[in-house]
Amino acid sequence: MAKITCIEDLRVLAERRVPRMFYDYADSGSWTESTYRNNASDFARIRLRQKVAVNMEGRSTASQMIGQDVAMPVALAPTGLTGMQCADGEIKAAKAAEKFGVPFTLSTMSICSIEDVAENTSVPFWFQLYVMRDKEYLGNLIDRAKAAGCSALVLTLDLQIIGHRFKDTKNGLSAPPKPTLKNIINLSTKWRWGLGMLGTKRRSFGNIVGHAKGVKSVSNLAEWTNAQFDPALSWDDVQWIKDRWAGKLIIKGILDADDARLAVKSGADAIIVSNHGGRQLDGALSTIEILPEIVDAVGDQIEVHMDGGITSGQDVLKALALGAKGTYIGRAFLYGLGAMGEQGVTKALEMIHHELDLTMAFCGHRKVTELSRDNLIPADKVFNPYLG
Length: 388
Prior knowledge:
Elements: H1 7-17, H2 20-26, H3 34-44, E1 47-48, E2 63-65, E3 68-70, E4 74-76, H4 89-100, E5 105-106, H5 114-119, E6 126-129, H6 135-147, E7 152-156, H7 166-171, H8 181-187, H9 191-198, H10 221-228, H11 235-245, E8 249-254, H12 257-266, E9 270-273, H13 287-298, E10 303-307, H14 313-321, E11 326-329, H15 331-340, H16 342-362, E12 376-377
Parallel strand pairs: 4-11, 5-6, 6-7, 7-8, 8-9, 9-10, 10-11
Antiparallel strand pairs: 1-12, 2-3
């Protein structure tokens, strides 16, 4: 196997090892995928200001996210079907995050359940919540997260309805995969993945099957799920959830300054500037492009985090310099998981940390908490040969 040097290397390996429908689920956006692509490409437009002859000894990337100490301000984002990238994927990713010293966020749409992850880890993780029509199920889900000792609730507000993702439709996405001829042919080439799945009992949505009313098996899961996302979601629901949870609350899916201000009024502890990885509203701004406006709108009233398009430590640094207090990686760790299991997630974190540390040094800082917009060169100051 070729030496792994960057997240792209993990992506290439994951594409070889993960069944097509699950690889595409992770590595795609909605409609034309323009927002999905811009999330990454807009980072490349930001230039860094290099400093020299500055003492670079004793560097530290340590920081805090919502009062929690972190080895670097990077958390593992909530991603659905993580346990289909690799057998017991959520457990493996959570263990890698725990060992590295960064937060892991479990999705409502995970394969491994809240209880599965809690039984296999020793530090509190975060739990991501979707608002469902079935308020009894929703309340029980919150209570289960509390009972498992989750230290923060990440409430996603941008999935009241589901964006059209063409690849998922064409692939007939399901968990577990349906035994169609196309799937059987593809799965026959993914023997490593298949052996892992044969060795686990976790092959469907562990937080739903057996917990939601009327969902006893995979056969009626899809119908229940499609009917449950609540298009009537409002800020009143946020208040109800906040009261029921009574702990640290992070609101995910903010792309507008006015919505950020409403999140401040809701009493949340942090917001995540997020466009759902480009998987919802295609044509929306990239998260790194809208981040400064949202930071300016809320000041220090609330902790601002961001996700979307982060594939390197330099991306993390740029987000922090623009005012984010924390960042999240989704696809980057999924590539590692699909490529090499827990070891791959660790590898992704190590590479991002190494890049963040070196770039911070080149920019003249020893502490990641010292980064600011002074470390970036404004776009209008970057030479463009086409503009003269």
